[in-house]
Amino acid sequence: MATNQDAFEEARRYIAGGVNSPVRAFKAVGDCPIFFASGYGSKVTDIEGREYIDYVGSWGPHILGHAHEKIITAITRAAKASTSFGAPTVAETTLAKLICEELPGVERLRLCSSGTEACMSAIRLARGATRRRLIVKFAGCYHGHADSMLVGAGSGALTFGSPDSAGVTRATAEETLVLPYNDVDALERAFAAYGPDIAGTIVEPVAGNMGVVLPVRGFLESVAAITRENGAIFIMDEVMTGFRVAWGGAQRLFGITPDISVFGKIIGGGLPLAAFGGRADLMAQLAPEGPVYQAGTLSGNPVAVASGLAALTHLRATPDIYTRLEILSARLAVGLTEGAQRANVPMYLARCGSMLTVFFQNGPVRNLDDAKKSDVKRFAKFHAAMRKRGHYLPPSQYEAWFVSNAHSFADIDKTVDAAREAFAECA
Length: 427
Ligand SMILES: *Cc1c(COP(=O)(O)O)cnc(C)c1O
Hints:
Elements: H1 4-12, E1 36-40, E2 43-46, E3 51-54, H2 69-80, H3 90-102, E4 108-112, H4 115-130, E5 134-138, E6 151-152, E7 162-163, H5 170-173, E8 176-179, H6 184-194, E9 198-203, H7 219-229, E10 233-237, H8 249-254, E11 260-263, E12 274-278, H9 280-283, H10 302-317, H11 320-342, E13 348-352, E14 355-359, H12 368-371, H13 376-388, E15 391-392, E16 401-402, H14 409-425
Parallel strand pairs: 3-15, 5-8, 5-9, 9-10, 10-11
Antiparallel strand pairs: 1-2, 2-3, 4-12, 6-7, 11-12, 13-14, 14-16
Helix pairs in contact: 2-10, 3-10, 6-7, 11-14, 13-14
Bound molecules: pyridoxal-5'-phosphate.
């Protein structure tokens, strides 16, 4: 039987770095990646036959757990009627209608295949609609790997970004202004200096890609207000939070309506599907109606749409799921906090519904600079100690853990017990 180590060595001979997305390589925890064989409900099994309770959930999509019966049935039925036409199907409209009917800010939307594509397209739309060139983002927020978003805070007093990846040109990076999350003053200064050139502001309403960081009271309202006062477009990236932190996402939870919303992850039910949508007049700027080009051979793919539709339909019909997720996640959070305290390990837990991060530091964590004060070596030890005990956590300090509705109270309690030992082990 092949081990994870064997599989990784073989993979590295044919796949760049052995993985198709960098975090999967477990470099941040100095461990060997896990190669999975199967998943069902809250559990995943690797090729060595080891079972884990899963808190990654494919990085967010699996709010209903792995291989949910309704999703599998829908996918199977769709696949039998052809996996792709590259032409319209009625189910795409059904999915779009479901989302539009739930969210007042989404009058029209467009489907695509990844969160990266959806964010990239939303930004192009903001620039095209305003005929302005600059985009504001917040450090630590992830909006996919399009060039204009792989940009970090520049050095010095200016807010112009600098490339966060080789291959991103300085010219591109300088068209993105990068500000600290939760910093309204910085946003006001940026608009005061460059307002007439700013096309839009993009934000994760609850950040999940520097670990979970909650918006401070009034932050999102200020982002919306300042952006709009300056004639720019307010883009809420709900790829992670959408239908996760609440039915209807963070915009429903906080009662804030963006000009453009971006979705992914949960809306695809585990298949590659994402969407961006907003006011009808803005969305009319997209080709074929308008001048902003956006396209995709597999956009609105029937199998992915069937999967997403099954997931959202089930969530809509079962609103109790969000209550249950809150109870499970709160129980996990309390248990983890007690475990860390008992072991005298400095720990700050941030949580919004069923997404949470255990920061190995005293906190509070309000932005990327705060998050970076975490003890990542201790996180790596904790991660290994949890893996050994059959718990699959995101292999980086700066990722969100996800609880699914397939998790049982017994799962949570097992994880809390294991964490108590793991905290002691890395104290
Ligand atoms: C995951 C994520 C993306 C990128 O989505 P992909 O499907 O991985 O391209 C964008 N924004 C946020 C907030 C995300 O969490």
